[in-house]
Structure formats: structure tokens, C-alpha cells
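=== Structure Prediction Worksheet ===
Name of assembly: unnamed complex
Input type: mixed (protein and possibly other molecules)
Chain count: two
Listed entries:
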Amino acid sequence: MKPSRAAGRLTPAPENFLDAGQIAAVQAGRREFLRGAFLAAAAAIAAPEAEAATQAGDPAILELPEHSRGLGQPVVARGYGLPSQFEKNLQRRESPGLTRVGAASVSFAPLQGLFGIITPSGLHFERHHQGWWDIDPSRHRLMVMGMVRQAKVYTMDDLMRLPAVSRMHFIECGANTAMEWGNVSVPTVQYTHGMLSCCEFTGVKLATLLDDCGFDRRNGRFVLAEGADGSSLTRTLSMERALDDGMVAWAMNGEMLRPENGYPLRLVAPGIQGVSWVKWLRRIEVGDQPWGTKDEVVHYVDLMPDGTLRQYTSIQECKSVITSPSGGQFLLDKGFYNVTGLAWSGRGRVKRVDVSADGGRNWRTARIESPVLPKCLTRFNIDWVWDGGPAILQSRAIDETGYVQPKISQLRAVRGKRSIYHNNAIQSWKVAESGEVSNAQVY
Amino acid sequence: MLRSISRAWVPAFAAMALALAGASAALAGPYPGVGRSATPAEIAAWDIDVRPDFKGLPPGSGSVTQGRKVWDDKCASCHGTFGESNEVFTPLVGGTTAEDLRTGRVKSLVSADVARTTMMKLSSISTLWDYVRRAMPWNAPKSLSTDEVYAAVAYLLNLGDIVADDFVLSDANIAEVQARLPNRNGMTRDHGMWDVRGKPDVANVACMKDCAVEVNVSSIFPESAKGAFGDIAQQNRGVGATRSGRGDKAAPALAVAKASSMDDVASRGGCLACHSIDKRVVGPAFKDVAAKYRGEPGSEAKLVEKVLNGGGGAWGSIPMPPNPALAESDAHALVRWVLGL
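=== Predicted Assembly ===
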């Protein structure tokens, strides 16, 4: 009559509600305090075995809950829907100590709790350079100028009349995983990889706007994008990238952009680090040289071991990470697990993802879920049975150019430990016999 | 060219804008009726970028001496009197030598124990000029005059021992400064991460079986740091394979502290650039202010006066700047909120 516990689920076992002294008490046969201890815990989960022994089954089944016996809420109780009250643990979070000023900081997406490849708009990571604004779209303007036949001004009305495209792309900050160049310094995948999101964007191709203004095809080799916020952040894009798949987007995941993501207009620069996806976009300039802006000369430069700074390291190279099981989680039982994660490449499609459970000695190829799109997150899954022993989980992505995601030791051999940006190393999660999963480096 | 047009011309351009808007339907292009031509005044208003070849640099000048005044008034509270402060932002100057000025490569960039300053990395002086004009001061970007930008940049260059105390920076001599910049030769674009077809600098191979790797855990998240990231168990969902935590009591939903609306007012008012609720930033923590003044007769009026008109001396050498844009009612509400923390 005991409800069976499927081996391998991350079910909290009864002993995990108890401290060592309480477990000793149970073993000595003193169980009377258990009832009280379990009452709180049992509310939301299957009845623990000790309780179930006295019952005909799971109270979640036997005692009909209020929602099965009463009248629920009407339509439009919330004009704009919200996540369940039980989902509050998944929040964007700042990494303690990483930045000092909230208006020039970053919040990380909770990758450990997300499914598929689309990031919910409200959990998209944030990076602001001088604070965010909620700009009145009727007063927003985009100017396209520089080496063009006709410098033009577009209102949002104008832009939304133009031929629109919808594309799914990942956006990753160039500094994602930056804290891990030297050694492990953060506990969970939210902080190691959470400057990563993926959405469907709708907007007009940058090529459409450049054509409309008659850009100089011979000498116009670069494009400058500029934001309307206080920082008026500027980034140079090569004309080749601009014309290939650059977009000026107003929509994200079927709704307008969120203010934190650049409402009402942002640049989408597929495959290129997030800083180039200029938010609150106000101006596009065509020119014949790069602009050497602050975020191209002083920041977003990769320091090499000989002291040289690499400028314009824009492409986000192929990378992957297991999102579950991942750092900060516990495996409480031996048995079956679905190991799942994300892979992506700024150079195109993900071709394959391999997963190792023994620290990289042996690998198996994971299942890749569709869709598999260029410069877009790709979800992978693979079966794994944990034997209860120590394990080290890793994923390794290969993109359509044949590039294989590198080990941290290979990256360090070329770039040292102080380049901050573009750490796309294989991530290791160490599983201890206790079931605790921790962030580790093994190469 | 455009930027040399004097302000007297602006009204004329406004009239022109109307004329152009009327004519826009006639613009040749693939999307008739969409968008209109930009007026010269509009372009001049927004085209503020300055490139490394100094395209876009407006004429003007500013001395180190003038720069020191701009600095003390508008920059020092965040960056420190000598641009050395590591309190709010990372230091702007330091780490460069006279030898670097000669070679154009900052030697200390190879040292692991030297914190990187702006001046150590800067390869083009235009970058600094452009950024100061577009984004500084922190809470009032684009408020400096052209000459003030020249002066502030001149002062920073002086702090970096790149120009003398009596130097006057101008559009005419900025190229000479470029030729003295300590890290002018310290950068490269010779890598495969700008072109989407560029050649990667590392090459792993996809070994599948019995791969020759030595699996040594070289680094693991330290037990001692666990508390620093809050309760990790409460950063996972309460059901499913991604729940976390030993002793995870049915993963109670995280009680998310509701940000008070005054938080918002403080943020919008720019207060949070220098203050935070519970720790000292540039100015004192709000909670420390509350502890000091709470219950003191007349403290509210006294603090409102400081918030609106500035003050100094109570918490150290950095003065509280005036906040003329803040409504008096907001100032009262803010002070009452702070005193109640």
C-alpha cells in the first residue's frame, strides 16, 4: 500500500527533512515528532513513506483538493497573465559582487529551470550600461544616415509598415562565463551561463533600411548602431553582418520588446555578442571605418598573455552547457535521469552534441530537439542512469563548420586566464556520492 | 562640416524640416511613403560620434586647469579627485609609465596583479573624447559643453602623465596626443572572431571512446562561498527533476521582497548612483542616515534641504550634490522613507 517511489527522481527522501539528530531518533524508534515535521512538508509533495503507512494512499489523491470541489476564477481575472504563484523561485538574479552599480550591471537568466529553447520575455537576461527606460513609442525615432544617398528618419509607424521578418536567435553576452577563466567562482548554471537568452524577434531587416536610404555599396563597409538611452551605447557592425541577417526589431516572443530589452526598438545581430544588439536603437550610420567606441576599445576587448588587446572579437563561438542536473542541485536516488541542456553557435547551426558522465573519457551523442536553426539555441537530451558513484557530467557541441567546443585548458593555452570575454569552454558538473552536484573544472 | 553650423541656423532648419516632410512622398526608393528625409539640424543633433581618425570631432579646446574644475564639480564624486577611485567604477588612470609613452604598449598589461585602468587599455584618444561627451556625467549624460569635454579629457591625460600641467587640448593638437598614448600600439584585430568565417584560435577534437584525458578536479566551487549567492535551494523550481537542495523542505516559494515605490523614486532621482540602502557607496547607506538622524527634531526639513540644495561635511569629504530636478514633494517623501528604513 505504500506509494512507490520511482528510482531516480529527484524526490526529497524523508531523511532529508531531518537533521542528523532526528535521523538518529528515528533509528532509535522515537518517531512521535515525525508527524509534526512532515505535516508542513507533505502539503506540496507525495506523502512520505512513514505517513503513508497509516493511510490507504496518497492524500493528494484521496482527499479531494479545494480546486476539485469549488468554483475557480473567471476569465480576465488577470488582463495580462502571470506565472503561477509556485514559480517564484525562478527569477533573474544579479551575481553578488560582480558589479557595483545597479544601472550598469547584469542580471542572469535562470537556465536551470527553463525548458526548450525560448526564453520567457520576463526572464530574459538584462545588461544595461546606464540604466533602462520605458520609452514612449510615439516619440521614438530611428535615423539612418552617413554614407547614404538619402539620410532618413523613421517613426515606429513607418518601420512597422515595412516588410517584416520573424527569426529565432540566441543572444549571449561576450562576458558570459567570464568568472570561470581562472577557476570556479560561481555555484550554478544561472551564474555560469545565464547571460544567455533566445527569443523569436520580429522586425525589419537592416538590409531593407540600408537599401531604402541608398547606402554606398562601394565604400560603406561598416555600420554604427547607437542607442537612445543615457549611455547612447555605440557598436560597429561589419556591413557584411549587417546585410546578411541584421535586423531592427520591435517584437520579441509575439509581443513588443520588454523595456529592459530595448522597447520599442533594438538591433538584432545574430551570432554576435549581446553588446552589439543595441537597445532603444535611435541611429544607424554607414561609414568606411570602424568607430573605436568605448565598448570596442576599453571594454569587450580580450587581453592576451602577451598584453595585446584583441579588439572586435564579436562572434560567439560554439558552446553548450548541461542545465539539469547542474550545480546546486541534488540527486537523491540512484537510477534514471534525463540529462538536458543547450547548445549554440554564432557561426551557424549546431550539428551535434556529445555528453560524457566520466569527465570526458567516454562520450555519447545526445538527442537534438527540433527546430535546429542557425545562431539559435538548440535543446539536447540524453538518457543517463546514475549508479550512485561519483560522476562528472559534461556536454560538447559541434557546429556546422566542424568546430568542436574546446576544453578550458585549450582556451587557456592560447588566451591565458585574463581575457574575460568569450569563454566557451566545456562545462563540468561534478556529481558526488551524496548526490550533490557542484561546479567543477577538470581539464 | 555639419557641426560647424551655428545655432542661429536651427530655426531655419525647422522650417526646412516641414518642407522636407511635405516632399518626402516624392523621395525615390523601394518603399514609397515610408520615412522621410532627415534635416541637417536633426543629423547635427544626433551625429555625435567621433572616430579614431577624428572624423566627427568638433572644434574647441580645454585646458588641464579648466578640466580640474569640471572634474571636481562633476566627475570626482564617482571617479575620485585623481581618477584613481575604485569605489563606484574601476580606476581611470594608473599603471602606465614613461617607457609606455615611448613604445605605445603598456607593459603592466602582462602582469596578473595589476588592475586594468582605462588609460592602460586606451588605444585611441577619440574613444575617450566620444564617450565623455555621449555618456558622462553618469547621471546627466550629454550635459557637458564641447570645451568642457576637451577640458575633462585634458585633465585625465594630465593625470596619466601624458600631457603637462599647462596643456590645452584642442582639435588642432589632439593627433599629437594620440601619438603619445601609452597603449596606442597595444591592440590587434588579427583574430578569427570578427568575420563569421574567421579561423578559430583553438581546435578541439571530438574523441568518443577511451579518450586520453586526465580527469583531475582542478577547481570546484568552494564550500566557504556557498552563502554568498543566497539560498541556492530557493533558486530552483519546487517540483520536477530540477529541484535542489539537501534539507529542501518542499522547496518553499521564495518570498520576493516587493520593491517599494520609493525605491523607484530614489532610482529615478539618480540617488542610487551614489547611495544604496544598506551599504556605503559614494555617499552613506540610507540606513546609516536613518540611524543618525531618526528622532532628531527638524531632521526631515534639514535633510530635504540637503537633498534639494546639496551639502557637505557630514559623511566625509565628498559633498552631496544639489538635485534641482527633484520635486520638493518627492524630496520630502524620500527623506521620510529613508528615515523609516
